[in-house]
Amino acid sequence: MKKKHHKKKISSTKKWSAKLHLWLGLSVGLIVFIVSLSGTLYIFKDEVQNSFRKEAIYIKQKNIDSKPLSINILREKISLELNEPYPVSSVEIPLDKSKSYRFLYYEKSKKGWNYFQQVLINKQVYVNQYTGEIIAVYNEKYDVFNILKYIHWGLLLNSEWGPYVIGIPTVLFIVMLITGIILWWPKNKNARKGRFWFNWKNVKNWKRKNYDLHNVLGFYASFIALIMSITGIYFAYPYVKNTFNLAISGYWELPKEKEIKSRDSMVAKKDAVFDIAALQAEKLYAGSSSFRITLNGKNKKGKELKNLPVTVYGQEGRFSERNLLTFDKYSGKLLTNKPHHKLRAAEKYANANYDIHTGSYFGLFGKILWFIAGLICTSLPVTGFLVWWGKRKKQGKKI
């Protein structure tokens, strides 16, 4: 007679965690795979692009000592040469004199159900500011990194509802991560030994190895994955952002900036208004990386701006340290100066959320760590599915 083996009692918490983990994994596993892979491949976008665009970014040494041409002259020269149906949107000016100016064409339509229909134009134009020569033009609309970004953001769907399509599976993925940690958690010290690393010395079965890959790697990546997921839904859902605001600064929504009126707005617009603003921004934040000036008089949503905003970036490749300047768009008079250190805690976090999401907030080490965690997250739906499929086939044989 065969000996009867008494099954170990499993707690109701682990039972329900196992069911949730399985059901949610099977329902959103494919989306988690796509979002994780696209996000992971996007992490080193700056490093890859800077390497390939080196000739466009850096100017020949002999031109650096001369004075840059007026922003207006450069803008008009670009408009004439490229003959685009849309105006130049903005210019990013590096404080490193050996780097070129970067002009941006960006126009978006509210119509269309996908990314390619909504984005009418997205071009980066690198210009030698000393000679006015157009060094290079990159069509960012079809750039692989931008496509990866919008796959990650909303599966290339309409930007109004695409993020919600991704946001719901991301929330479910957070539940999967939590239930995964509960299932991983060992009962005692003896069980704990095999949970932190692979013990494949006498293991030849691929199913066991696959299970360990899902279990062990999933545990190590889960904490970073939670950070990535929560910072991701921060972009998708306003109430998540408002919850952060409430927790950090004690109010539900960030106070709206009051519209500043200047007497100078009654005078005729100066042709050199952008140069006046650029000169002041450079003097105020000489130790910064670069600053961006809006040239078409519109914000990201296409609404007309009452004044001229200038965003100063403290470090290259990071958006967390931002200083905000506002100038009168007619005279170039400085109206407000909001340095990063004087921003509210919730405003600082709002600026930092993107960098935390991509790992760049923690420097190159953070990016590498986030990249590895992203690869593991990409593998989890695959290894998880194989675990389920293996058990399913085993149960089928018993029947």
UniProtKB/TrEMBL annotation:
Transmembrane annotation, as ranges: 20-44, 164-185, 217-237, 368-389
InterPro entries, per the entry: PepSY-ass_TM
Entry superkingdom: Bacteria
Keywords (A to Z) from UniProt: Membrane, Transmembrane, Transmembrane helix
Coiled-coil ranges per UniProt: none
Protein name listed in UniProt: PepSY domain-containing protein
Species in which this protein is naturally found: Chryseobacterium pennipullorum
